[in-house]
Write a structure and sequence with these properties.
This is Sulfite reductase. The protein has 99 residues and is of the alpha+beta class. The chain has one domain. It is built from two helices and five strands; from the N terminus they run βββαββα. The protein is globular.
Length: 99
């Protein structure tokens, strides 16, 4: 029996800066997970993934990441996604310094 479809967001890395980015409902790449479009339909998620993958001049490594709806927007359900949104772990800079 197939597993039920879990809510997802489209995520990638910005081509120039390398920052983690998420696809918003207006097709903009945003750096804040709270602004990402939550996809709850598998067919729509696949279409959005294909559309985002075609924008290789803006972002690379495009994929769907599982999330859970939260009061402040989507929340990662896997430690990898939570880790990615916090920025590099090699030293305290960038996103880590602003939190």
């Amino acid at each position: 029996m197939p597993k039920p479809f879990a809510p997802k967001v489209v995520t990638a890395n910005a081509l120039i800066e390398g920052d983690v980015v998420y696809l918003a409902a207006d097709d903009a790449w945003v750096r804040d997970l709270a602004q990402a479009e939550i996809l709850t339909d598998e067919a729509v998620a696949q279409v959005r993934l294909l559309e985002a993958s075609a924008r290789a001049h803006e972002a690379v490594g495009v994929y769907l990441a599982d999330v859970a709806p939260g009061t402040t927007g989507p929340q990662p359900t896997h430690f990898r996604e939570d880790f990615r949104r916090r920025g590099p772990s090699n030293y305290y800079h960038g996103k880590q310094a602003s939190r």
